[in-house]
Fold:
Amino acid sequence: MRTLLQALNDANASKQALGHFNISEIAALNAIVDVARETHLPAIVGLSEGERKFFGARQAAAVVHSIREESGLELYLDADHTHTLQSAEEAARSGYELIVFDASEKPFEENVSLTKKVVEAAKSIRPEILIEGEIGFIGSGSQLHETPQATVVLTSPEEARQFAEATRVDLLSPAVGTMHGMLPGMLRGEVHKHLDIPRIAEISKATQLYLTLHGGSGTADDDFVRSIEAGIRIIHVNTELRIAWRRGLEAAFAANAKEFVPYTLLARARSQIADVVRNRLRLFSRS
Ligand SMILES: [Zn+2]
Structure:
């Protein structure tokens, strides 16, 4: 299996992006595994601090590692939206390949100094680990928002360059038009998120880093494709999976009101999540 860095280098050479999918529990993980088996495409499995708390940071890593050993599938593990040095160190010790360190709500200077500390500490535990830094603010919570988040601040190429230089991060997530979560109209496919493509290209050039797009759910397909051409190498999808999980369960309950076997009910969630993962992975790799 390639290292995550090798997979990113290959994606860069062929102008593709790796799909990043969040999980809270095993049905969603199994859905990602189903699609990885079927498509032979690599995927990043992400758990934010809340998701790690529910699954167990080390337990999720143990499950992903055991699937990988048995199947040879290219599944990489990301400690998504990690807010403290302590939880970054825990992820590095637990065998995560990537840490998204997120101090983007702090003032720029503080974000730089905290991120720099995490880069040094995590790499001293696990030298090959990759660290992603976050600048700009795209709202919090992979959930349904009634109105657009007013606090979204787009990243300038110059601050991205300064941040990359000062922190020595391996990847960077700039704010370029997405937000975490979705709006009701996006669920119905009536509105989509749109990205600032020239800004992505400028940030990519200014930093010479691989860029990550957070809050991918609800983005127009064409914007995804153009963002990948401009330098996006990892795309996060979470809310769409959570909605598929919920809809799958609702359909399972509706189909048989008396059913109470968890694996029977959750099978529906698993297949609906797999549909989202398959569509996104195919689009991101254009295969
Ligand atoms: Zn995110």
